[in-house]
Specification:
29% of the residues lie in helices and 22% in strands. With 492 residues, it is α/β, with parallel strands linked by helices. The chain has two domains: 33-167 and 222-366 and 477-492, Rossmann fold, CATH 3.40.50; 369-472, ANL, C-terminal domain (GMP Synthetase, Chain A, domain 3, 2-Layer Sandwich), CATH 3.30.300.30. It has a twelve-stranded mixed β-sheet with strand order 4-5-3-6-7-8-9-10-14-13-12-11, sandwiched between helices. Strands 19-18-17-20 form a four-stranded mixed β-sheet, covered by helices on one side. A hairpin with a 2-residue loop joins strand 21 (463-465) and strand 22 (468-470). The radius of gyration is 22 Å and the shape is globular. Mean pLDDT is 87; it is low at 475-492.
């Protein structure tokens, strides 16, 4: 849906919106599927059980190609390697990577143009911006090669959940597929090209959720792919009403999956939850398999290092930050990129027989849920879309203390204009509707929490389920619970 103007789409009748969604689905089919996709999928099915030496040889071969390409066509890396007196031939294996410094988010923000390859036509690249919920929104470009590879890895994860392409599945992710002003069902649109029911994450309340469940039953949905917090809202309602909806699997991504969420989702949907991890920067991908013994690192996608505080690799069983090198994005290669996430490298192999290394846990960011005055519950990560691509915005935070208002705190650079504020306001209003007032506050800095965490959405408004009222989902102690975060779900 990113190529469809939101305002024009919102004005169309529902039948036309379904046609547009299916048209976009066919467009994606042409871009990311076909013979190349099928070849990669077959290769992935073979390599996931290959020996460690074979996987390592593949990574080294791809790494040599990436480094040589970066040196010759990416100004940032050409200058960096010359300054360090390093030549592409000096980096021939994964072990040689440590001769290059870690690439931080701040460095990507400051050097975005110099990180783009001069060999790629910019008009043909896919542009994406991270949410900025870490405090530093990162703008990246992808070429078709990494888009196809990412798609193949995503369908590998779905295959592990028992649902192949063409089988009916539902997504409960971040696309503004249904206008926020809509008050009656259907709160979903159907992508006939994929047999995909796209559910709105912006209309979740106890009055609407029964319609969601009915639509899933009518379509014979076999898998739900969702933000953990959005799927959790469905499951909490189902628990309150003593309802279950058996599925083959639930695939979660984009924010940490808490233990309390996994337990309830598995109970209400009568299946196991597969958690997945990735990011808009397209440097790493990981997912649970059907055995649920950890998240397999998709070694064919990128080289993942787990480093301790001194920048040294941890031993199996140790924890550290995730630093990754993408092996397929030649438009904007990121080498030794610090993702901002932490992980524990598992020492044991998975009983499934796959030889891909396991991460026991991945810790990302957890955010609160915004509650509107009409009772709708909107997961915090969904609001990040309103901030993407806004120039001169250094950091932001959303604070909610009552249901009818949110306060948006901004740290902005010189050049941030009134129209930029209106752009954010309009994006938030399209997602929250008219029942939430939006106030802006300009500040010099946004402090960390008591535990030294940067929280992007902070809400003290309780969640209500009929007569049941609970505190907002992520308290500080819950945010420490390990889970996985990913940006892959919205790529479709």
């Amino acid at each position: 849906m990113t190529d469809l103007p939101e305002k024009l789409y919102a004005c169309c009748p529902i039948g036309v919106q379904n046609m547009l969604v299916s048209w976009y689905g066919r467009k994606i089919l042409r871009e990311r599927f076909g013979p190349e996709f099928q070849k990669i999928r077959a290769s992935l099915a073979s390599s996931e059980r290959a020996g460690r030496e074979e996987i390592g040889a593949y990574q080294d071969e791809r790494l040599r190609a990436v480094v040589a390409h970066a040196y010759e066509t990416v100004p940032y890396y050409g200058e960096l390697m010359d300054r360090l007196d390093i030549r592409p031939s000096d980096i021939s294996t994964r072990d040689d990577l440590r001769s290059l410094p870690i690439l931080t988010r701040e460095a990507v923000v400051e050097n975005r143009e110099r990180l783009l390859s001069t060999s790629r036509t910019r008009g043909r690249l896919r542009r994406a911006t991270t949410s900025g919920t870490t405090g530093y929104p990162v703008s990246v470009c992808w070429d078709r090669g990494v888009s196809v590879m990412n798609n193949a890895c995503l369908w590998r994860a779905r295959d592990w959940g028992g649902v192949g392409f063409g089988r009916p599945y539902a997504t409960l992710m971040g696309r503004l597929i249904v206008p926020a002003r809509q008050t009656r069902p259907p709160f979903w649109r159907f992508n006939s090209s994929w047999n995909q029911l796209i559910l709105s994450s912006y209309h979740l309340d106890e009055g609407n959720i029964p319609h969601y469940l009915d639509a899933m039953r009518e379509r014979g949905i076999e898998m739900l792919e969702a933000y953990p917090s959005a799927a959790y809202m469905l499951a909490r309602y189902m628990e309150m009403e003593s309802v279950r909806l058996p599925l083959k699997s639930v695939l979660t991504s984009s924010e940490p999956l808490l233990a309390i969420q996994r337990e309830l989702l598995e109970d209400r949907f009568c299946c196991r939850v597969l958690d997945a991890y990735g990011q808009a920067e397209r440097v790493a991908f990981a997912s649970e398999c059907e055995r649920h013994e950890g998240l397999h690192i998709f070694e064919e996608y990128g080289i993942v290092e787990i480093l301790n505080e001194d920048g040294e690799p941890v031993e199996p069983g140790g924890s550290g930050q995730i630093v990754a090198t993408g092996l397929h994005n030649m438009a904007m290669p990121l080498i030794r990129y610090a993702t901002g996430d932490a992980a524990t490298l598992k020492s044991e192999a998975c009983s499934c027989g796959r030889t891909l290394r396991l991460l026991e846990s991945i810790t990302g960011k957890a955010e609160d849920i915004i509650v509107t005055s009409r009772g709708r519950m909107v997961p915090g990560p969904l609001l990040s879309y309103a901030f993407k691509g806004v120039p001169h915005l250094v950091r932001s935070q959303i604070v909610q203390e009552r249901p009818d208002e949110i306060r948006v705190r901004l740290v902005a650079e010189k050049g941030f204009l009134p129209r930029d504020e209106e752009r954010i306001r309009g994006g938030l209003a399209r997602r929250l509707g008219s029942d939430v007032a939006i106030a802006f506050e300009y500040v010099d800095e946004i402090p960390m929490s008591a535990r030294g965490k940067y929280r992007w959405v902070v809400s003290s408004v309780p969640l209500r389920w009929g007569k049941l009222s609970t505190a907002n989902l992520y308290q500080e102690e819950d945010a420490e619970t390990v889970g996985a975060r990913s940006g892959h779900g919205d790529a479709n």
